[in-house]
Amino acid sequence: MKVGIVDVGGGNRGSFGAGVFDYCIDHQIEFSYVIGVSAGSANGVSYLSKQRGRNKQFYLEYSMRSEYMGIKNWIRKGVFLDLDYIYSALSNSDGENPVDYDAFQNNPAQLVVVSTNAETGKAEYFDKSDFAQDNYDVLKASCCIPVICKPYFLRGKKYYDGGLSDPIPFKKAFADGCDKVIIILTRPKNEFRTSKGDLKTARLLERKNPQVANLIRNRCSLYNAQLKEALQLEKENRVLILAPDTIDGLSTLDKDPVKLEALYQKGVVEAEKIHSFLVSRQ
User: Fold this and answer.
1) What would you report as the CA-atom Rg of the chain, rounded to the nearest whole angstrom?
2) Which one of 86, 107, 163, 219 is most buried, by most CB atoms within 10 A?
3) Residues of 62-89 as b/e, b for ≥16 C-beta within 10 angstroms?
4) What pTM was computed for the model?
């Protein structure tokens, strides 16, 4: 059977997924298909390059730096979250914590990265062929949070966070041939999303990015519909959902190292469920 794993990201709450993937590396659990949204796509890269602990360092150490995110970035560059610092300055071969690019590309597993075309409002999917040594632009496109970031230009198109158009992309995993799918959530699995703050954010984008504004107005209903379907598939043993029991109030850009460490450890513990799911796949 072809078993895939989905990481939905969620900003710094992606530390939960980092814990899941580090557990998988420690226990030699390998997947032939990995699909990531936003921070989940970055988690997937480090998992495929087998760089244990690399993602954790980004969440618990680098995210505390003003160069990573903060008001200083806003003043200097007009963005709160500096994607070039994260996925170029830190991640390139001459960076502080480079991706092992050869290991990443030589891993036979598929990687799919979800992003949102800002003009069409549709999800677009990238794969390993869209990467190059010291060029991780597809990760920047997938992680580009509206308002917090300017739209990211890639090959003449504007992109925003993949979570706007396909927040829990298990359907893409099944369409690409997976028989069973593990889904990493960064909210409790029975917690449905609310629209709090979405209308305000949509209004800020209405004039320049009407398609994205419309997605933001509707992202609550899209996420909840996908979650409802995933919960049903879990009952049918086609899906395993890994999720924290609580996120302790952590928001997308929260920089509380104690809470982020706790969330990482929850990911490590939740990942133990993978063993029985893989055994039961027969």
Assistant:
1) 17
2) 163
3) bbeeeebbbeebeeeeebbbbbebbbbe
4) 0.95
